[in-house]
Amino acid sequence: MFPLLVPTSRKTSEKWGTPSSKERRIRVKTIILIAVILGSAQVGSTQAMPTIEQCRTTANHLIALSSAELAKFQNQMTAGDELVYSTQLAKCLEQYPTVLSQPQSDKLERIVYHFDADVIRRMLDFMQRHRLADKFNDEEEARKSK
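User: That's the sequence. What structure does it adopt?
Assistant: Structure tokens below.
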């Protein structure tokens, strides 16, 4: 089963203000759909391969989102949730390459890429904020010289 990814953010209401009823409905529908599709989280368990139906339904839902809706959904997730989610979507694309049409697969691959790029950006921002980037680079240089 996919882990349950219920995006949460303490900053959501600060960024966008109070959501309109339409935005609340979209969020609730998205969370319910994801909860139904992805199943419940089981801490410490191994993740099984997603089923064809889970992949198809999740992909169709994500593909149908506008860029703004996808950005809002993405901003509600933690970097960890985003990484797990993109990994599961990538597994779908690998395991079931013919489930979606070529244009659908292309769009889903761009979504996965966008999620992964956002995780990398968040990690780099964290490293820079906490002055860990220099230490990381120093250790990488030391590793290369061995």
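The helical segments are 12-16, 21-38, 52-64, 67-75, 79-95, 102-129, 133-145.
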